Amino acid sequence: MTDRMHEFSDAASLASALADEVAARLAAALRDRGTASIAVSGGSTPKKFFEALSTRDIDWSKVTVTLVDERFVPADSDRSNHRLVQTHLLKDKAANARFLPLFYDVASIQDAADKATEETAGIDNPFDVVILGMGNDGHTASFFPHGNNLAQAIDLSGPRGVLTMRADGAGEERLTFSFASLSDARFLALHIEGQGKKDVLDQAKAGSDENEMPIRAVLNRAATPVDIYWAP
């Protein structure tokens, strides 16, 4: 699959440009189908992008926001992607969006995955927008190198929905949408910043082992061209 590189001079310029593009994609979906959907990633990188997107003037009341992946921690945890999105995206104009979490306070992480799969099943397929990040180990979503459910997670013939992941590099157990759920998004972006991440991306492109660097599955097999947004 092809990818398209968009380079910016700084993180603020990237955040503004990506917010403009995403808002345009969501607005187009609203015009075409009356609803729109976006799945976003956590970590520190997307904060500026979330802040910019929250100010864009679209009919957020008809937009469903969910997470690409989540740690199995309560929503008020400092480690929660839910909390990150609540703080930086679901405010201003975007406060009216419908948010579907992946974490649920249930007996087990598998119960949470089942509940999240059920709750998100009503989102139209494919997603209108998916924003991925990438770790220095080459993981994306919660597709971690040698994760216990990695083969299932990156299998495009597998079911849509949310599954669990444990890996040495993951810290907490994770909940993650399967690659089958994400790969055909109408707009599929990889948002990375810093020379270190660019070097990791170049390393991923130079090799083929998806277990070693799962971002390769996205770059090699996504059904949609991957738009890479990068700033130093």
UniProtKB/TrEMBL annotation:
GO terms for molecular function: 6-phosphogluconolactonase activity. It holds the Pfam family Glucosamine_iso. It catalyses: 6-phospho-D-glucono-1,5-lactone + H2O = 6-phospho-D-gluconate + H(+). Keywords: Hydrolase. It is an enzyme of class 3 (hydrolase). Its EC number is 3.1.1.31. Pathway: Carbohydrate degradation; pentose phosphate pathway; D-ribulose 5-phosphate from D-glucose 6-phosphate (oxidative stage): step 2/3. The keyword Ribosomal protein does not apply. InterPro entries: 6-phosphogluconolactonase_DevB, 6PGL, Glc/Gal-6P_isomerase, NagB/RpiA_transferase-like. Residues 10-221 form the Glucosamine/galactosamine-6-phosphate isomerase domain. Hydrolysis of 6-phosphogluconolactone to 6-phosphogluconate. Belongs to the glucosamine/galactosamine-6-phosphate isomerase family. 6-phosphogluconolactonase subfamily. PANTHER family: 6-PHOSPHOGLUCONOLACTONASE (PTHR11054). This is 6-phosphogluconolactonase.
